[in-house]
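Severity: low
Component: inverse-folding endpoint
Summary: output formatting inconsistent between runs
Steps to reproduce: submit the following structure tokens with default settings.
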């Protein structure tokens, strides 16, 4: 069986590359550079049955590590917004969660730099205990959850996990556990966020089921959540890779070919075949598959030079 190694990065299509790069790179201290793409032709035509994509991009993380953020600005073909306004619970990759040393201090000190869209709130989560959080939006409206803890003596403690909104939590949990290597349940399914995400869900007393999964070999974690009431909006059917908004969750795996063989045998639908990509750190192969809601899941393996 292939070995999953957790979440590698979140992919985000952006409109104003300079503004988004400055926000994540400077305001949120994503200053550990992983890769830069300039006028690159990306072989994504197989995924969306169109032309290859000419793009600029950057991949970076915070000094504390965690999930990498990838910003992509497509030049060809011209992108558009996936949604005019993203709400918590919209089906697909829906948010990223970043640890800070202290939520209340962070909100006070960063109120002029970050667009907070809720006040700090507290709850308890099974397996994690006390949990304090606040929601914000980046300059293009993508949701960011900030949580207290894990930052040590600094301000930021890394991007802890990616949030994916699904239509059936139990079905999606089984998929990511059985087929994507998330063998550890960090937070069991619960409804403790119900009534606490109303501002970002756009509803009163929004009912949510949520869980957090991890891989025992490390890597970033994955939060799955189902907006039970009101139901989350479906993925726009005409959305393309590179449109503005959260595009994908990318998982690290040990061997893309073994992965393709095993997922194919399990009846998982692919968006691409294994594809070779240039990477500074070595030979990189990737493929895209669909999760049970049709959400694109990238899987990548890198063989060092």
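Observed output (run 2 of 3):
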């Amino acid at each position: 069986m292939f070995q999953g190694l957790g979440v590698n990065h979140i992919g985000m299509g952006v409109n104003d590359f300079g503004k988004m790069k400055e926000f994540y790179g400077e305001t949120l201290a994503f200053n550990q550079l992983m890769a830069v793409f300039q006028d690159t032709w990306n072989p994504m035509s197989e995924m969306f049955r169109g032309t290859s994509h000419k793009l600029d991009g950057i991949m970076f993380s915070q000094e504390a590590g965690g999930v990498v953020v990838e910003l992509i600005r497509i030049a060809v073909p011209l992108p558009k917004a996936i949604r005019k306004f993203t709400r918590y619970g919209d089906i697909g990759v829906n948010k990223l969660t970043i640890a800070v040393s202290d939520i209340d201090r962070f909100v006070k000190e960063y109120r002029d730099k970050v667009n907070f869209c809720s006040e700090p709130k507290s709850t308890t989560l099974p397996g994690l205990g006390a949990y304090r959080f606040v929601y914000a939006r980046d300059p293009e409206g993508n949701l960011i959850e900030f949580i207290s803890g894990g930052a040590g003596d600094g301000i930021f403690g890394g991007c802890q996990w990616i949030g994916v909104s699904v239509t059936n939590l139990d079905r999606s949990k089984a998929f990511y556990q059985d087929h994507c290597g998330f063998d550890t349940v960090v937070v069991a399914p619960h409804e403790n966020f119900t009534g606490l995400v109303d501002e970002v869900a756009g509803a009163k007393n929004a009912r949510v089921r949520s869980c957090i999964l991890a891989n025992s070999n490390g890597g970033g974690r994955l939060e799955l959540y189902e907006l039970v009431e009101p139901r989350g909006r479906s993925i726009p059917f005409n959305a393309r890779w590179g449109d503005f908004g959260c595009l994908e969750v990318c998982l690290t795996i040990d061997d893309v070919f073994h992965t393709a063989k095993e997922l194919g045998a399990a009846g998982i639908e692919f968006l691409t075949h294994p594809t070779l990509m240039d990477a500074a750190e070595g030979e990189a192969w990737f493929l895209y598959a669909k999760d049970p809601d049709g959400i694109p899941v990238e899987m990548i393996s890198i063989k060092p030079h």
